[in-house]
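Homework-ish question, so no full write-ups if that breaks the rules, but can someone show me the predicted structure for this set?
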Amino acid sequence: MRNKLKIVLLLTAWLLPTVLMQTHAEDVSFTANAPRQVVMGKPFQLTFSVNQRAKDLRAPEMSDFDIVAGPYSSQSSSTSFINGQRTSSFSLTYTYTLMARKVGSFTIDPASIVVGGDTYRSNALKITVLPADEEPAPSSNDQQATTGGANATQQSASSSNRSGDIFIKTQVSKTKVHEQECILLSYKLYFAGVDVAQFTNNTKLPEFKGFMKQELDQQEIQTELEHYNGRNYQTAVLYRTLLFPQKAGDIEVEPASFEAVVRVQNRTQVRSIFDDFFATYSNVTKPLTAPGVTIHVQPLPAGKPAGFSGGVGSYSIHSSISSNSITTNDPITIKLSISGKGNMKMLKTPSVDWPDGFEVYDPKVSNNFKNTTSGVSGSKDIEYLAIARAAGDYTIPPVTFSYYDTNEERYKTYTTEEYQVHVARGANDADQTVVTSGTYTNKEDIQKLGTDIRYIETQPLRPNEHKGKGLNGQWWLWYLLPTILSVLLFVLFRKQIRDNADARKVRYRKANKVAQKRLKKAKKLLNDHQDAAFYEEIERAAWSYLSDRLSIPQANLTKENISGILREKGIAEDLISEVSNVLSTAEFARYAPSAAGSKSELYDATAKLIDNLENTKL
Amino acid sequence: MKRLYGILIAMVSMAASTFAADWDTANGLYAEGNYADAAAMYEELVEEQPAAEVYYNLGNAYYKMGEIARAILSYERALRLKPKYPDCKHNLALAQSKIIDNIEDNHHFFVAQWAKAFRNLRSENTWFYLSVGLFWLFLVCTFVFAFGRNIIVRKTGFHVAWITLLCSIITLWCAASLHHRDSAQEEAIVVQGIVNAKSSPDKSGTDLFILHEGTKVWVEETVNGWCSVHVGDNVGWVSGSAIERI
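A: Not a homework solution, just the prediction itself:
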C-alpha cells in the first residue's frame, strides 16, 4: 500500500514539469537587463533571463564594452500552492559583467535563445556611459555651495557634505512660452556620496500663482545616474507638474522647500581608535531648497478669430451626425470630437446652431484627457442631442473651432461639415395630430424676432384726387351760398304763408259784412216773394259766414265739421245746436218750401245766429 | 382744337408714365438695398407729385440709410397728407424710438391733447367736407323746424339742427386747426446731429440746451435765419439750417 503511494508520487513528480512546460510553452519571455546609465571604468552587469528551459544563447556583439566576466548562468525555480492552485515559476539567467570603454550612448542589440526548438529574441538595450568622476578639488564643493544659488534658472541649492553632495534642481521644459501653452516643471534631486534615507512630509511647494496646475501621476521614484558638473549623481524626480500660464508677463515660480533625511557617518573631533572599526551613522534632517524660476509668458498675438475657443496647442476636430433622414419626434445627435494636445481643460464647448423646429438639449461632454510630460493630450467628445419636432428640410450650419497653434505660431480655424437633414412626418406624429387636432393644439403667439420698419409701398400710385382744396381760397363760399339760398327760400316761404294767413283774415273780418249783405238781399227777395231765391240766399249767407269765420275751405263745409270745430273752440253747446238747427232748417226749406215754417222766422233765426256768432270770440 | 387736345392728353399721359416708371425703378433700387439712390429718386418724385406714399417710401429709404431725422421728417409729411396710414405710423414710431431726446409734451391740458389727437385723425380736406355736409344738413333741418307740418317733426328738426351745427363747427375747427398747422409750418424736425439751442438769435448766445437729430420742435418765430423753437418747457434759438419744417 505504502509502496504504491510512493510510486504514484514519484510518477507525478516526474510527469508534472513536462506537463507544465507544455502548458506554458506559449508565453516565453526573454529579456535583457542592464542599468541605463553606467559610469566609465566601473563594471556593471548585463543579464539575459528567460522563464523556460532554454539553450544556445547567442549574445550580441558588445564591441563598445569590455567583458570583465561571464557569462555565468544560474537557474531558479519555485513552486507554490495557494488555495489549492499550483503556480510555479522558472528562471534561467545569464550574467555578463561589462565595463564601458568610452563615454557616450550605446546600444546592445538583442540576444537570441532557443526554447523548445523556437528561437526567441530579447529586447535591445540602450546604455549611456557617463564620464568618471573628476577628482574633486577641496575647494570645488565650497564654491559650488556658494555659486549654486546664483545660477538662477539652472541652479542648485547645493550642500556639500564633505565628499557627499545633495541638492535639488528646478527644471522647466521652457521658460519662454505663450499664454496657455503647457510647460513641464519638475524638481529633481541630485545626490552623490550621501545616503538619502527618506523625505519628510515637510515639503512646501509653491502656489504656482498665475498658472493652472495639472499634476502628473506620481510614479515610483526611480534613481538614475547623471553626470553633472564633473560628477556622477544619483538623480530622482521628486515632483512633476504641468503648468498652463493664465496671464501674460513674467510669472515667478517661488522656491520650493523639501526636507530629506540623510544618513551621515559620525565624525567626532576626538578621534579614537574605535572610530575606524565602528563607523557610526546618524540620521540628519536636511532642508533642501529648489530655487524659483521666472517664466516669460507672451500674450497670444492679436487677431483672434471670432469664434476663438481659448485653445492653445495643436488640435483637430471631427464631427459626425447620427442620421441625415429622420422622422419627427426622433432624436438626432451630432458628435464632435476635438482631439490633440494643449490646454484641453480650457477649451470652450462649441455650440451647434440648431434650426428652429428642433428641441435642443444640453450637450453631453466627455473628456478623455491624459497628462503626459509633454502636456495634456486626449480628446473632448461632445454629443449634441436634439429632437425634431417639425417636418421639413433643414440645414444645420457648420461648427467653427479655432485655436492658437503653438507649433505653427498662428491661429487656426477648423470648420466642420454642414449637414442637410430631412425630417419626415413620423407615423406616430400623424396619430398625435389626429388625436389633438379636434380637441386641443398648442397655440403659440407669433414669435417676435426683431423689429424693422414695414416695407415700402409698391402699388402704382393713383393720380392725385383732391389736393390743394380744404380751407384754401373761397372755402367760405361753401357755407355762404347755401346760407343765402336758404335765407331767400325762407323769406319766400314766409311770405306765402303770411299771404295765405292774410286772405283768411280778410275773409274773417268781412264775414259779417258779407253775411249782412246776403241777409239784406234775402229780405228783399222775401218781400218780393221769390221763395227759392230767398232760401238759397239764406243758406248761402249762413254757410259762407261760417266758412269765413272759421277759416274752413268751402270744400270741407259740412255740419259735422262745423260743430266739431266749434266744439274744439269751446263754444257753448246751445249755440252749436242753434247753428246746426239753422243750417238744417235752411237746407230743408230749400228743398221742401211748403213744409217749412215761416220765412221771416227763418230769416230772424239766421240773423240772430250770425249776430250771436259775431259776438262770440272765435 | 382737336389736335391741341390730343397733344395735351399725350403730354399728360407721358408725364404719368415716366412717373410710374421712375416709381418702379426707385422701388427696385430699394429692393436691391441701394437705399441712397432710391432716396435720391424718391426725392425727385416727391417734387413731382407730393403724395403720402412717396414720402413714406422716402422715409423708409432714409431709415435704412440710418438717417433717422430725415426718415422722421418724411413720415411726418406722409402722415400730414394721409393721417390714416398704419404702416407709416408704425415706421414713425420705430424711428422715434431710435432718437436720443426724450421729450414728453405733457404740460398741456389733457382736453387739449385729446382735441389734438382727434383733429389728427383725418386730413384737413376730410374735415372740411364733413363740415360743409353737416352745415347743409343743418340748413335742411332748420327748414324742417320752421315749416314743419306738426309739432313732432318740428321738434326733431330743431334738435337735429343744433346738433349738426355744433358738429359742423367742431369739424370746421379741426380743418382750420390743421390748415393753420400746415400753413404756419410751426412743427419742425431737427436734422443736424447735435444742435445747441442759444439764448439769442446769434452764435454768441449762451448755450441753453442740446437737441439731437430727429427731435420735433415747435417754431415760434424766425429772425435772421435763426428760429425760436420750443421743446417741452425749453425755449431757445437754433440756426434755421439745423431744422427742417414738416
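Now go work out the reasoning yourself. Hint: The longest strand of chain B covers residues 216-223.
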